Amino acid sequence: MKDNTKCLHSGYNPENGGPRVMPIYQSTTFKFNSTKEIGDVFDDPTKAHIYSRFTNPTVDVVEKKIADLEGGVAAMCTSSGQMASLMSILNLCNSGDSFISSASIYGGTLNLFAVTLKKLGIECIFVDVDADEKEIQAKIKPNTKAIFGETLTNPSLQVLDIEKFARVAHNNGIPLIVDNTFPTPILCKPIEYGADVVIHSTSKYMDGHALQVGGVIVDSGKFDYTNGNFPDFTEPDESYHGTVYTRDYAFAPYIIKARMQLMRDFGAYPSGNSGFLLNLGLETLAIRMEKYCSNALKAAQYFENSGKFDIVDYPGLKTNKYYELARKYMPKGQSGVISLTIKGGKEAAIKFMDGLKLASNEVHVADIRTCVLHPASATHRQLTDEQLVACGINPGLVRFSVGLEDIEDIISDIEQSLSKI
User: Is this structure's pTM higher than 0.90?
Assistant: First the structure.
């Protein structure tokens, strides 16, 4: 099936006389006919649902749909995108290990990696997103367990050369994790270019309506965890009655380990109702992404021709540094987010944002409604000046997330606000 069809049909096939719309299983627990049957499910968690801290029938449908869209073998939803980022690393790294990350990532993720994981004894080694393979290789240590990057960075909109980072990762026997939040699998499928694990903040385009926070981890099923670098996958897990993940769940050892080890302990699983709302967003994802991209390109062209901005970063513009790379990895479009550096710095940026009437000034992105944010004073305010520079952020930068309103109305709103500066 094509993506438009997968958005509507993957994961759920109602039986004869069953509900056409996926139902909400708003239940914490599930009934079994005997004690033995419960024990059997604990021995093999893929047999049935045990408890909604691990799996839920409604959320399970969403996981199957997202895995299908990304071209993976399995997925696990989480309570937030931050938790998806955290679990994707903790599933591979223990205290004393390290991993590589592109320096150009979402501020919350950067803080998670640089500060919180450091407290847990896990070192994050940052590298420039444009570094060549030799530079990336030079950062690898004997204890390095993964490489992490964002397909399209938030908010600087740099494009990750997935194949380049995948080559370095695989040459060292470690997986590549890619955050594909902004493109979604409609615009880019990182697994096709060598990514081993894909994560999302489903709060963004996948949900699309600012209804609920969530995240997801997708397992490609392609990485060989028996290569000697990951004993936690190949040796008995005594915390889960001696399970050997690569032996007992060879089809998807990464996601099973994440679910039965990390999700069991952290309990950061979404409710059935959250899964239902996310599925509604997914059903229109393909058609929405097409419109986001169309609107954003026109808005970016207007910004570029206005003369009011020092920099207009949108990979769909032919003048953009990443245009060719974006065309390679995201040929259908480059999402609806534009990164703007306005002339006049922070004061001008705030004046422009506060002057908008249609667009909302809010801490969100990738919504059906146009919204704007000043990262330096909001999502990235916890970062040092040096970290802001590493993320590609300066005081005048505005993240402009184009919505699904008529593009003429969006541009009219931009025009009236710029006229006051």
Answer: yes
